[in-house]
Description:
By secondary structure, the protein is of the alpha+beta class. It has helices at residues 3-22, 155-160, 210-229; strands spanning 27-38, 46-52, 58-70, 76-81, 87-92, 108-114, 137-141, 177-185, 193-205.
Amino acid sequence: xxxIMSKILTGAVTILFAAEAAQGQLVTNSSxxxxxxxxxVGQVGLTFPASFSDVSGVIxxxxxxxxxxxxxxxxxxxxxxxxxGQMAVLLNRPGLSGSNPFGYADPGFxxxxxxxxxNIHYYQSDxxxxxxxxxxxxxxxxxxxxxxxxxxxxxxxxxxxxxxxDFSVFDNTSANGQWTLFITDMSSxxxxxxxxxxxxxxxTVPEPSTWVLLAGGVGVLMxxxxxxxx
Length: 230
């Protein structure tokens, strides 16, 4: 492709992206619920719903806030299910590893979970961790994402499992419908934890509209015709 043609096509693509950007901005949709519910022991757990309706566009990002007090963090297991049945693992026995069969002993979380942050499973190994094992863990972390059985999986499997069940499972899908948080304490004996509240934030981006696609197609066609005439 010669230089003139490259410049023309680059201009056409620039027009397409400019038109796309002009049609709308990212939209943030949030839900927060106060709970103050004691966590049961075992895989029965608790479920808490959140729902969105009339949200346009598709999901660009998801984040979750969790405020949990007391208990033993290494016993906690939580996941988020989206309207389409997709599941992101939020917590899966934090700290459980081949060298730590019990997980971390910190009593609770007051955190935001968001992709792109340090993974929460080994949070004590991250420089951003500032706790002393006697208070809630704070800060922004990526969800655990390890989709393994929290009841019967040895710590070595956690070490070897990639965190693939993160918030990316919701990308480019609709936010409309019911979302469900599941959370439980997998083991007794370390005191009962309480989930104080949780929040869900879903950011959507408008889908390309018909006129934008047409504008892009016309731009490319014009560029091609100009190139033929040269």
